[in-house]
Specification:
alpha+beta, two-stranded antiparallel ribbon, about 40% helix
Amino acid sequence: MKKIYTLLVLLLVSVSALAQNSGKALYRKYSDEPGVQAVYISPAMFRLIGRIPDVESGDNNVNLARVIKSMTGFYLISFEDPELGRELSADVSGLLDRSDYELMMEVKDDGQTVRLYTVSPTDELITSLIMHVRDQEETTFLSIDGEIDRAALEELIASATE
């Protein structure tokens, strides 16, 4: 019985690690492909940015510091190769099928689809966020990991849209 319990605990830990490293795996797979623009921001950079008292964006006077301090990984890839876009979309679908991501939002407009997924172990916390944008010409994948306070994120979104 102890062996079964230990095996179940290891399985749960590995599934949790998969959710946390999903963006990293897809970033590694696609970031070196020709024509791919790629951005990675490390936990060390987030710690440095988090020391800045107030980080504001544009004219909206949006304070980003609260959300930035809680991030541990940021992975962004974007490209205009339709074949690579289909491959990435298939990989994203496979990732979502075998993890705890929940569709939070979907927008379809004139051939473009934007989907936002999150992993939320509690109602107050988001541990992973994925945004996948696809149209006929361009594909963008964004993944953010951390322990993001849902209220802080909602506050940030609300102040950005005012």
